[in-house]
Amino acid sequence: MKRFVAFILVALLGWNVLLTIQVFQLKQETVPQTDATTATNNIKQASVNVTSDVTKLVEQSENKVVTITASSRGQTIGTGSGAIYKVEDKTVYIITNNHVVENGDVMTVTFANGKSVESEIVGMDKLTDLALLKLKVDFQAESFIMGDSSLVKKGEYVIAMGSPLGIEYQGSVSGGLISGVDRRMEMDIDNNGVADWDVNVLQTDAAINPGNSGGPLINMAGELIGINSMKISDESVEGFGFALPINEVLPIISQLERNGKVVRPILGISVAPLEQLSPFERAYLGISIQQDEGLFIVNVSRNSPASRAGIQVGDVLLAFDGKKVNDVKQFRQYLYSKKVGDKVTLVYEHNGKEKTKEVTLK
């Protein structure tokens, strides 16, 4: 009996030793390897080809965007961007900003494929800051589809393309939202510190930097909806870029293509705000010190529609074709919304008496 009990104890002891050895081996197998080579082998690198609507849009658009280098007397004086507007056989038409090309005598256009071609200026318009270039190429070029900027909505995603800071950054892409539509921006055309004109613009927070001027603002359908033109540069603001809406660009570009310039109607008067007149000047001209409506007529061109209507220097223009005028920019907007040959009604004050005349713009 004692031998049997001893045998059982020895068997149990042996079994415990065997279990202990197996547990130890199992732990060794599950302990992480610290060997550098083994650790490296355990790291897996994902390989993902990222494609999105935006990357496809960029791929479809980049060949339609160009860099424009303006030179004068053999020296580069500035760079900008452009959007291919139309292609006829091997002739390429490019929209850009007037300020990109106005001071240069040689314009070199560099395409996305790296080819550079000298271009001619078809026409420029300082008032709207637009210009049209034309050149011939020996490769297949592609133009943008024109969008409808009247359909652009606040919050819509857009991309801007161009060459910020020069040709070395050609084809740069920035994206953002339409921050506002139908914004009005003042422009000082003659750089005298006084705003001469208001332009309607699309506001976007897509980054627009020097060199982006004249480049395209593109919607998610790949359509050209604006020409990037300006930004507000100030330490206190960020993401204030502006583009000329394509619906307002195309009529100007069409005139440049046809005539080499924009033909605007002429009335034949120069005007100034009444507040610019001193009390002495008002008294001399017979204008009441209390009168604050209308525009003072400072010049009348000979043989102009205004002069033939009997309007004289010193008269006060009160209304243009049924609309009151108290601001020079506002008056220009009303005038330039008409066409040559249109008849308009003028209401003005002459020697203290109100008169009405119909004139034909030329």
From TrEMBL:
GO MF, one term, reads: serine-type endopeptidase activity
Q: Which Pfam families match?
A: PDZ_2, Trypsin_2
Q: What is this protein called?
A: Serine protease Do
Q: Which SMART domains match?
A: PDZ (SM00228)
Q: Does the keyword Hydrolase apply?
A: yes
Query: One biological process GO term for this chain?
Result: proteolysis
Origin, by domain of life? Bacteria
Q: Which InterPro entries match?
A: Chloro_Bact_Ser_Proteases, PDZ, PDZ_sf, Peptidase_S1_PA, Peptidase_S1_PA_chymotrypsin, Peptidase_S1C
Please give the organism.
Answer: Longicatena caecimuris
Which residue numbers delimit the PDZ domain? 274-352
Q: Which UniProt keywords apply?
A: Hydrolase, Protease
Q: Which family does it belong to?
A: Belongs to the peptidase S1C family.
* UniProt xrefs under PROSITE patterns: PDZ (PS50106)
